[in-house]
Amino acid sequence: MHDRNDKVNALLQGERIPPMATVRQKFESGHIENPGEVLRGLLERPELKRTIRPGMSVAVTAGSRGIDHIDELLRETVGFIQAQGGKPFIVPAMGSHGGAVAKGQVEILEGFHITEETMGCPIKASMEVEQIAALPDGTPVFMDRNACAADGVVVVNRIKPHTGFRGPYESGLYKMMCVGLGKQKGAETVHNRGRKRMGETIQLMGDAFLEKANILFGVATIENAFDRTYRLAALTREEIQAKEPELLVEARGLMPRIIPENLDVLVIDYMGKNISGTGMDTNITRSFSLESGISREGRAKKIAVLDLTDQSHGAAVGMGAADTTTRRLYEKVDFNTTYPNLLTSGGTDSAKLPMIFDNQRLTIQAAIKTAIGADKERLRMVRIRDTLHLSEIQVSEAIFEEICNDPAFEVISPPRELSFDENGDLF
């Protein structure tokens, strides 16, 4: 420990951390075993084949999220275009992510095994954009220059509820067009219309893309609670507008959640950009930005976050939602990678620093100590690996007593003291 923190640490030494039981939450587990093969069949529609002319150049979008089998889905999409005589290339479509530079966006794709070698086609990365339309109020609509110059564009993305706004189109094909293909400038333009108008903005700009850009078709995936591919859809240009809201409703129903409610403390082992655009999915933590207008009812009194994933490359967007964290996480933060996304979105609260402590035990103890109003003898605490993995969780004794006979849970191990190492860390 650091000597300069002795006074702070002394205040926390006696704070009791309750024994924790390990349980499994039961969610819908159905999924597609062979997504690539299924997509290959879906793409065989005559309506899709007719969109590709021999020799035409086709841009295929690739985003910054960790989507199940995304490399396989992109490879099948590229192969389909090539089989029709088209000349596909991959475009990083991720707004301002990757430090808002082309090289950083290519590196993100490499982390998902999306390279020119694995895809069998070029990757054209640029932050340059062209204006393709304007909304009724004059707001410009921007599009990646390489995609704009192509003869056609195929949009590929997962459809799921967004972490910061509500609307008929949230995270999905529409957002991939107006924010992903909009690059940093387009993403900034979307956010400049205001957080509370995001749903409206995404819909208006997405409609503009379908009207003005040469969108050929879309490939959509939705995932179950275990991040496995649950459904795939290959949608014609005309179907995207009508079908995406239906898929969003289905995706919302499949989302996992922390079933125990009224938590005093939520401990999250890892946050990261590969887990959620906000580091921790706010649909799970309920720590929505106040500017979003979405109710925060159900948020734990305090949230402790213990580490940042290596796959985040130092991007700690969302750390402002934590109340306490570790020095380990703080020392991993690359502000040069974190800030461009927030300077684009205006979400400065997302980068505010939580209280920082020398180890994971102190970080948890600080969250417990500051959970005002909590019954410390019957503390309601849950520990999760991250907001993507909610099947196996740990619950405190008080919660375990409530759920041990509940059919929605399977008991893996009874309450036990958490095992900290000599440095005060769990891992």
Give a short summary of the structure.
The chain is 33% helix and 21% strand. It is built from 16 helices and 15 strands. Helix 4 links the parallel strand 2 and strand 3 (87-92).
Key features?
single chain; 427 residues; 8-stranded mixed sheet; 5-stranded mixed sheet
The general outline is globular
Q: Separation of termini?
A: 16 Å
- Summarize the main sheet: 8 strands, mixed
Radius of gyration: 23 Å
SSE layout and pairings?
Layout: H1 6-12, E1 20-25, H2 35-42, H3 46-49, E2 57-62, H4 70-83, E3 87-92, H5 102-111, H6 116-119, E4 129-134, E5 140-144, H7 145-149, E6 152-158, H8 173-180, H9 183-192, H10 198-212, E7 215-223, E8 229-236, H11 237-254, E9 265-271, H12 282-285, E10 302-308, E11 324-326, H13 327-332, H14 335-345, E12 355-357, H15 360-369, E13 381-384, E14 392-396, H16 397-403, E15 409-416
Parallel strand pairs: 2-3, 2-6, 6-7, 9-10, 9-13, 10-11, 11-12
Antiparallel strand pairs: 1-14, 1-15, 4-5, 7-8, 13-14
Helix pairs in contact: 2-4, 8-10, 9-14
